[in-house]
Amino acid sequence: MPVTNFKTPEKYQYQSGFRSYHETEAVKGALPLGANSPQRCPYGLYAEKLSGTAFTAPRHGNQQTWLYRILPSAAHSAFELLNDIPQELDPGLHQIPNQLRWDPFEISHKVDWVRGLKKVAGAGDPTMKTGLGIFVYAAGRNMDANSAMYSSDGEMLIVAQHGVMDIKTELGNILVRPNEIVVLPRGIKYRVDLPEGPIRGYILELYQGHFALPELGPIGSNCLANARDFQAPMAAYAQDAETTWTIVNKFNGKLFTAKQNHTPFDVVAWHGNIDYPYKYDLGRFSVIGSTSFDHPDPSIYTVLTGPSDHPGTAVADFVIFPPRWLVQEDTFRPPWYHRNTMSEFMGLICGEYDAKAGGGFQAAGASLHNVMSAHGPDASTFEKALNMELKPTKVGEGSMAFMFESSLMLGVTEWGLRTCKKVQKQYNEESWTPLQPHFKLPD
Ligand SMILES: [Fe+2]
User: Is 94 considered catalytic here?
Assistant: First the structure.
């Protein structure tokens, strides 16, 4: 059921549409008419452009936002390395072929969003704008007062698993609840407060390009994630030219801080196309499936894709497995056994994932099946599927699993492999070693 069927507090005002050209002003007349940068902006505001693509990117992919604010972002002190983070966010990566599964990641009640970000896996390099990073976040307190963060490394897709996030962004306020996602473009400043206690979830950061809706091909013009269900914030601003603010910048995996004597949340009006934060309720995803036999590929569950330069090949897809009906006849209904050229990082927001009912894959946990690492249903799921009566069945009720699927080989961080102490030692042995041969020639 869509989360946003419930009443949203008035503080959060949204405009709908994916890739829509939005414009919004918190004060009537704050947006200049016609010109982007008139000699004098209305109300004495400063015009500031945030570009999400090269100026010369093709028109259909060109992304930018114009901000009209009380003081420009450039007014801050020099950045210095933040030294109270016990480890760098981006240490070396371990490239290993093993199937991996993690027990639920813990919430630390002492830390805020900034200190609760942990990189688990990734590929590529923010300095080359290639690849992606996969993080988990877990925090128990608001970000420090008068602090804001932004990432120069990429565009973050945040999957809320536990707790409510009040995200104040330069472009407006967003409320994110479990089963919702929010996308924060590269460079957008934000702060995360916890109005209802601890939070936990997952992040896919695209170092290259931007998230887009997948092509629909023969499916037609509707279904999967519909464009109208994406929500961008309306402009909301604060006026504060006396308080000292701390700006945290994630830059090539390291955290830097600078000070400024004005709030970064002073954008009175803005206009732009998709280079703005937006949220989406996974409960609004319209699921497609087979109504005869066999399985389509799981790409039918793609919510957003981070395309590479090769058509149809994603740096990373965000794929979900929502509650849905299975009706196929004479079909092995769990996923088939497979070895993929893509790597698959999975997480579970809630409930029990229908393809892994053994209990080892838990909400707030994760699994990684890397390039060509063989996997599929565990032995008990296989035996059950072999013998079940194939009636129409609703699976995944009360559950939402997801996958960050990448064409790149994912490396695992030292934190993900060892420091977090969540890797299950017997994942392979417990899942697939018990499989028995069923091969038998007729007598
Ligand atoms: Fe898989």
Answer: no
